[in-house]
Amino acid sequence: MTPLRLGIATALVAAAAYALTLPDYGLVSDEGNYLESSRRLFGWGAHLTASVRQGEPGRAFDDDVLGDSWRWGGDRIPHPPFAREVAGLSGWLLFGRTDLLTGYRFLGTLVAGSLAGAVAAWAARRGGAGAGVAGGAAFVLTPRLFAHAHFALTDVLLSALVFLSLLCAAEGGRRTFAAGGGLWGLALATKFSAALLPAVLLPWLLLFRRERLRDLPIFAAAAALAFTAVNPVVWVDPAGAAVEYVRQGVGRRGIALDQLPTFYLGRTYVFRPPWHYPLVMLAATLPPGILALSATGAVAGLRRPQARPAAALALGVAAAFVGALLLPSAPLHDDVRLLLPIFPFLALLAGLGAGALLRARRLGAVAAVAVVAALLEPAVALVRIHPYQASYFSPLVGGLAGAERLGLEVTTLKEVLAPDVYADLNGVLPRGATLDGGPFLHEDLLHAQRFGWLRDDVRVGRDPDSDYLLLVNRRGWFRDTDLAVARTARPAYSVRVDGVPLLALYRLR
After folding, report:
1. Rounded distance between C-alpha atoms, residue 182 and residue 148, angstroms
2. Do residues 433 and 439 make contact, with C-beta atoms less than 8 angstroms apart?
3. Count of helices and strands (H, E) across the chain
4. If DSSP codes are grouped into helix, strand and coil, which group holds residue 76?
5. Which of 33, 314, 410, 486 could form a disulfide with 345 if both were Cys (CB 3.0 to 4.6 A apart)?
6. Residue 434 in 3-state DSSP?
7. pTM of this prediction?
């Protein structure tokens, strides 16, 4: 099977797995606001169409109109709009055909599936068919990545655009190189961290593809064109939009809404845990077999001329993104969410590592057994804890229970609050009950009522004298009263994995 066919097959399998399990995950952090933002972006499109028909297209570009659509949310949504455009398009295409959240997320699952296929194809191109199969499997079977592939956030889309941009730059001719620039522009229009790409690409080109250096102006021009095309605020005020983009990208420390708490190794930190947080979280949340294959692929790939360019690029991306998060101005929260662009490159390295083992004649059948064993643990875990893969922890730290003993946050994104959990809560909460979700869940409970998941008669507030308290086990957000209740009271309802509560409902009176 050619690398392209292997990649297409992997993409189809992955996308199907993601799409079929979409209803199993609850609304996660930021998605509620992103839904509203997407609605406003598409409303602006209708406003523009109407303005053009009336012969006054400039009305759609008035400051108040752009502010109410493209700048809605302010510091609550510090990212450019492309991810919300993709999700909004998904919701528009599937409107009335699925439930609201599934429709909003669907195109994202196709993007995630395509990314899995690209990993498999690149690994096969540089390491052989065995490397391609193992690389694609490593991507799909990484539990944390499997969960994030379902969420309409910025992270998986950014990961796909960065990966595909570098794939085009590394493997194609001049036209493909230019296409890579366009993909980079869309990545920049998704999240500011895409600005790290030149720090990886330029040294790599100097080492491996110097002939492409002369095409960098085309790459940059394609990026600028793509970035501008999906950002109407740039059309009106390019200089002001650039200043706003940089401010929101590098000024997060000064934004009040970004002062998020993180519980790490038994202590709560605001905005940034210690510098070793990203390294510890990568080691704690990646399956050990995939980590071992990735390490093998890094060493074997750098030693083998055919695989060296891909291995070097993968290591460069990992170093750039981890290094950026070590800067004191960079936010650190939501465990590995900000590190997701590294994951497809780790899967690529895992594929190269598997390919190296399978080519080692002296190992014989042992190599195949080792590769299967490396992928078996995450495969079993992925199925066993579904749909709570975002709470997966490596056996090296004792799994989920071990992570809780170490003082790590065992759940961060609220995906545990799926519609079936709300159905259970509706069965437990009496009519007219007051429900305290605290600062972490207040807005999400209101979203749930708006979407029809939580009964309208339940009164949502942040009053400690409420009838019930609902806690998602993200310790950094616990108030002192929450911690006292969690330590002393017996929950009226809970969701547990391996004995660890991810969510608990307590009756207060």
Report:
1. 24
2. no
3. 22, 7
4. helix
5. 314
6. strand
7. 0.95
